[in-house]
Amino acid sequence: MSESWKTLENIKDNLSKKTIKQLFDDQPDRFYNFSLQVENIFFDYSKNLIDQETINMLLSLLKESGFENWRNRYFMGEKINKTDNRAVLHTALRQSKPHPVLVDGKDVSPDVAAVKDKMRRFCKNVRDKTWRGHSGKPISHIVHIGIGGSQLGPSLVVDALATYHDPDLTCDFVSNIDAHDIERITKHYNPETTLFLIASKSFTTQETMMNAHTARKWVLDHYGDPDSISSHFVALSTNEAAVSEFGIDPENMFEFWDWVGGRYSLWSSIGLVIPLMIGMDRFEDLLDGAGAMDDHFRTAPPETNLPVLLGLTGIWNRNFLNYPAYTVVPYDQRLSKLPLWLQQVDMESNGKTVTRDGMPVDMQTGPMIMGGAGTDVQHSYFQWMHQGTAPTPSDFIICAAPDHDYPEHHKKLVTHFLAQQQALMEGIENKAEPHRSFPGNRPSNAFILDRLTPYTLGQLLAAYEHKIFVQGIIWNINSFDQYGVELGKTMAKDLQDHWDDPQETNDSSTLGQLNHIKGNFSV
Ligand code: F6P
């Protein structure tokens, strides 16, 4: 255990004698000292149980972890994802001033630019109705089929930027292998005006391929003509062979590369639904916002670096104050899918039990993440947040200026946003009626975006991505693989292969459940 780690344990013992509220009472400059502005995002981390010594020591811990060296290797395209032998370069997709980025000695920026040009041309054609369905009708409905990182990011962004949607287009996302999902499309939409985007890095993911085949059959059954596929299907993938085998012309494929991790892929062609809905210029604004956060993360000193401070307060809460979870609460209906996106990007990245050297970790790693839009969650799990026995830190997010015409709504939203943070921190004692007591001392961060634009959204999402990187470095884990999803897939495959003759090696509960279901359902 490093010296900084031990010192932080001592700091925790001392600081825990106080409450966050007492720290505010003692330190008049606290808000000023523990907040910062990065372009259009204001970040307040003063409502954590920290003081300046805590931050200084967390910064030392970061330094000891070799953070600067790792950050350089990350941005330089070194293969820091060792188990997959891959670079981690989603940042190369969003450089405001493209410059050479080498992967295996090859500059990847011309390929990035070429795919973006192809996306721009395609989006223009669909949006100005030059691109037509097989029967000559323009496209009015886009269906994005993908799962995990190939769905959550695009779906969050499309929802968040609904203000900018093309009024002639609607879109849906289909991810679940449960056919109640795709049936929403096949029952209610017209294949002649529907365009399917098949989004899969591997083009082998069972859920996506099964939904894609069902959609393909739906279109073929309608037209009875295999040529119809080319007007209604495009692929977003790294796997050209599998795309061709599925029957999509490589001309209709938007490529990306193995150095873009699935959960970091919304910035690549996987995000094609975004420029289709909001236009390519605005998609470029989203990329620019993320690129600006990349520049900030790469160059700002650690003590004024937003993703660094977000990561370090998370480490403090997870490893020293021992909070096993944290909650993310956007006070903005448009960002209601942010917690879902963050669950994948954070928990799939940092939910790990072995170090980069394959040894068991000797500290807690990524927390459990939950969340939902405020004020709604105030009427669901916030009772637990205020009076439950498992105190949980939170990130509160709001836009200073809304994009609707109801200022009175916004005023009230802002007061709830502030009051909840305050109530979680201050609590209140009621000796006469203990059920009305609130323990308080529950930490939170706050993000205030000037307003929700493609640019600020790009900044916010990139800040979270880099926070995950910071924490992975301190925990000494590989944040960029996801072997934890494999075992369940293999077992499902085995059960699929033996549906009619299940292996006796299965436990009696698995066999019993299967038999119970088979008693009520036959294929
Ligand atoms: O859940 C595992 C995972 O591999 C994610 O990392 C990925 O985003 C998702 O599945 C989908 O993978 P693909 O894009 O290859 O279909």
Short overview:
With 523 residues, the chain is of the alpha/beta class. 46% of the residues lie in helices and 11% in strands.
Could you characterize the architecture of this molecule?
The chain has 523 residues and is of the alpha/beta class. The chain contains 20 helices and 13 strands. It has helices spanning 3-15, 20-26, 30-33, 52-64, 67-76, 109-127, 152-160, 180-188, 206-223, 229-232, 240-246, 273-278, 280-299, 306-320, 338-350, 382-387, 407-426, 454-475, 486-497, 508-518, and strands at residues 35-38, 41-44, 102-103, 106-107, 141-145, 170-174, 194-199, 233-237, 253-255, 325-330, 368-371, 394-399, 444-449. The strands form three sheets. It has a six-stranded mixed β-sheet with strand order 1-2-13-12-10-11, with helices on both faces. It has a five-stranded parallel β-sheet with strand order 6-5-7-8-9, sandwiched between helices. A two-stranded antiparallel ribbon has the order 3-4. The protein starts with a helix and ends in a 5-residue tail after the last helix. The model has no long low-confidence stretch (mean pLDDT 96). Bound molecules: 6-O-phosphono-beta-D-fructofuranose. 6-O-phosphono-beta-D-fructofuranose (F6P) binds at residues 147-150, 200-202, 205, 208, 262-263, 348, 482, 485.
